[in-house]
């Protein structure tokens, strides 16, 4: 009976630790630009995926990834340096609003070849025609902020880590870009 209680308590502690790990925040909060709409209050655990679940055959090139960064970042509103994180600046170049955003990204450790992939729906994020907006994967809450796995290769590897990033929105062709973290672990404010 004592062993059964110990197993149950150990399982509860593990679930609690995983949940709390996904709720930590770092860096200064930032505001989403006024020409985008986002009501994200995500603070959940993000786990790796084994394949890309995005299903989008649209051919209209209305979505552009203006910038993608994972280190040496500057907040677009305050113009101040911010902690390292995956940060995407997206633009709607089409004539209709975009919503239904999804992001899939793969990370590859350049020295070991180890890979991880992550997928997230950007609930609440949309872009009006001609609008530009920023999304952050940083475990903060608020507009434009989405969870990340703080135990990912990006956070734990001391090697260069290469990112391949896909962004999808309903009715727009999938946009793709690359980004890299140089050797060393993720840094605080630069």
Keywords:
disordered N terminus; 12 strands; mainly beta; four-stranded mixed β-sheet; 2 helices; 13% helix; globular; Immunoglobulin-like; four-stranded antiparallel β-sheet; 190 residues
List the helices and strands and how they pair.
Layout: H1 2-21, E1 36-37, E2 63-69, E3 73-74, E4 81-82, E5 86-92, E6 102-109, E7 115-121, E8 126-127, E9 132-137, E10 145-146, H2 153-156, E11 161-169, E12 172-181
Parallel strand pairs: 9-10
Antiparallel strand pairs: 1-8, 2-5, 3-4, 5-9, 6-7, 6-11, 11-12
**Low-confidence segments:** 1-42
Order of helices and strands: HEEEEEEEEEEHEE
* Secondary structure: helix percent: 10-25%
How many structural domains are formed by the residues? 1
Number of strands: 12
- Relative strand content: 25-35%
CATH class group: Mainly Beta
The rounded distance between the terminal residues' Cα atoms is 53 Å
Our count of helices gives 2
Radius of gyration: 18 Å
Given the C-alpha coordinates, what overall shape results? globular
- For the biggest β-sheet, the strand order reads 2-5-9-10
Mean pLDDT value:
82
Query: What would CATH call the architecture?
Result: Sandwich
Structural class: mainly beta
Largest sheet: 4 strands, mixed
Named CATH topology: Immunoglobulin-like
């Amino acid at each position: 009976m004592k062993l059964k209680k110990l197993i149950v308590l150990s399982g509860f502690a593990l679930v609690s630790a995983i949940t709390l790990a996904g709720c930590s925040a770092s860096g200064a909060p930032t505001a989403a630009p006024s020409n985008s709409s986002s009501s994200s209050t995500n603070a959940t655990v993000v786990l790796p995926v084994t394949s890309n679940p995005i299903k989008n055959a649209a051919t209209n090139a209305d979505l552009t990834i203006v910038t993608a960064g994972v280190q040496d970042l500057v907040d677009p509103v305050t113009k101040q340096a911010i902690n390292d994180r995956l940060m995407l600046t997206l633009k709607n170049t089409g004539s209709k609003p975009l919503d239904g955003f999804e992001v899939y990204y793969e990370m590859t450790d350049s020295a070991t070849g180890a890979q991880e992939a992550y997928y997230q729906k950007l609930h609440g994020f949309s872009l009006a025609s001609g609008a530009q907006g920023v999304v952050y994967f940083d475990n903060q809450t608020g507009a434009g902020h989405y969870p990340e796995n703080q135990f990912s290769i990006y956070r734990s590897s001391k090697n260069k880590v290469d990112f391949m990033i896909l962004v999808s929105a309903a009715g727009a062709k999938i946009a793709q870009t690359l980004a890299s973290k140089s050797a060393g672990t993720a840094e605080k404010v630069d």
